[in-house]
Design goal:
By secondary structure, the protein is of the alpha+beta class. It contains eight helices and eight strands; from the N terminus they run αβααββββααβαββαα.
């Protein structure tokens, strides 16, 4: 094979390799939850959806304000009268016989009107109140979007720490399997030479196989949690993440929930609903007042009996004036609307108080959970080491014949129970700390 042929083959392989690289999933190192959050803000479809919804609400708000601006309308029409309107006039007014009437047709067969019409509201309290109402609706919509976004961040935090929890559980399951498998291999050797009865051997075998199945189950849980996290952050399923953060390695830190309740989206939404219903009440009370509008128009009218109106007569008309409208009686509808608006306002005020009480309780619960679960997680670490040592020692003592199989399995079950309690406390601690950190950072630091 010639040198040029080898060189061409090498370049082709390199080109193929470079073409395949972009198709492979990217590898991302994750040091903490902040890295996952930063990745999600740039990749998640939910985040992009909320940004579009904010732009939509801003556009709707500007559309509402445009009703206060002057309005200029151009119009035009072409009419072909198949029959002209007829009026009856006394014949004597046109020199006819008294007591009789003469038919008179007015107008021309063809008419063209071209014009401009201008209007601007001068006094319209209902319009002003409606614009204020739309502005408050805009604020409520914004807070609703913010509430959805922060709920998404909290869900992301739960999914992230759930993944770390399953990874920690997987490590514990592997440690248990290593010890159980070692004892099982020893029991199998003793069983094969006749030193161990079938029932004790099968009980030890069942324990080892159960430990192995638990490893498989935790591996599945890790994969499922990772898929769920990938969906939330908008990552491609082929992306590879290297998680450097571990729950067991986190420094013990007692956080305090020092965020301001009035900065929470739930509080803001409730407060905006109070303002919205108060504005609706004002709008209902002023909707019966008169409105005043300035109007003006200018148009040109061309009339003729021939289709070609080029040489027909044309007339220009200009007019301006004021238009007053006042609904004096509406059959009691206005009174009913005002009463309903007043009830809605009272309900919104009560709902604000209910929201405040719920947020205060949530804040106290978060602080209590952090203190309680931090103490539990810290105390469990040396305790788990003791239970693991007990199981190792029990395996040695069983092998030497000092304890029966029942006691060996009892020590193993005690270790498993402590692992479950440890994982539960660790999960609640991580989630509580994440929620407090998110709320402290996202809300209390807002201007």
């Amino acid at each position: 094979m010639s040198y040029n042929h080898l060189r061409q083959l090498s370049l082709t392989l390199i080109a193929l390799f470079l073409a395949v690289i972009p198709l492979m999933g990217q590898k991302v190192s994750v040091r903490n939850f902040g890295d996952i959050l930063d990745f999600a803000y740039t990749q998640s479809d939910e985040k992009q959806l909320w940004e579009l919804q904010r732009l939509q609400e801003e556009s709707s708000q500007r559309e509402s304000k445009s009703e206060l601006l002057p309005r200029l309308r151009a119009y035009g029409n072409w009419d072909n009268y198949l029959e002209l309107p007829v009026q009856l006039l006394p014949s004597e007014s046109v020199g006819g016989e008294p007591g009789t009437f003469t038919e008179i047709r007015f107008g021309t067969k063809y008419q063209v009107n071209l014009g401009l019409e201008f209007s601007i509201p001068l006094v319209d309290l209902e319009l002003w109140n409606r614009i204020k109402t739309d502005r408050l609706k805009y604020e409520v919509a914004k807070e609703d979007i913010s509430s959805q976004e922060h709920a998404w961040v909290e869900q992301l935090a739960r999914s992230y720490y759930l993944l770390l929890l399953h990874k920690e559980s997987l490590e514990l399951a592997k440690n248990r399997y290593v010890l159980s498998d070692s004892i099982y291999r020893l029991a199998k050797a003793k069983f094969e030479i006749g030193e161990l009865e079938p029932l004790p051997f099968h009980r030890i075998e069942a324990s080892a196989r159960s430990a192995k199945n638990q490893v498989f189950n935790q591996e599945k849980q890790v994969k499922t949690a990772l898929n769920s996290l990938n969906r939330l952050i908008g990552a491609d399923q082929t992306s590879e993440f290297e998680f450097l953060d571990q729950l067991a390695d986190q420094q013990p830190e007692i956080l305090t929930a020092d965020y301001d309740l009035e900065q929470l989206p739930e509080w803001k939404m409730a407060q905006h609903r109070v303002d919205l219903n108060e504005q609706a009440l004002k709008q209902s009370r002023t909707s019966h007042l008169p409105t005043l509008m300035a109007t003006g128009s200018f148009y040109q009218q061309t009339l003729g009996n021939q289709l070609n109106l080029q040489d027909a007569s044309s007339f220009e008309v200009g007019v301006w004036g004021l238009r007053l409208e006042w609904d004096i009686f509406q059959g009691g509808k206005q009174k009913t609307k005002t009463k309903t608006a007043a009830l809605d306002y009272q309900i919104a005020q009560k709902q604000l108080e209910v929201t405040r009480q719920a947020l205060v309780q949530e804040k106290l619960d978060l602080e209590a959970e952090i203190v309680h679960n931090q103490a539990l997680a810290t105390g469990f670490l040396p305790l788990l080491s003791v239970y693991e040592s007990n199981y190792r020692l029990a395996g040695i003592q069983w092998a030497e014949g000092f304890i029966p199989v029942d006691e060996l399995l009892q020590v193993e079950n005690e270790w498993i129970d402590q692992q479950l309690d440890y994982l539960l406390a660790l999960s609640e601690l991580a989630t509580s700390k994440a929620l407090v950190s998110i709320r402290n950072h996202s809300y209390s630091q807002q201007p």
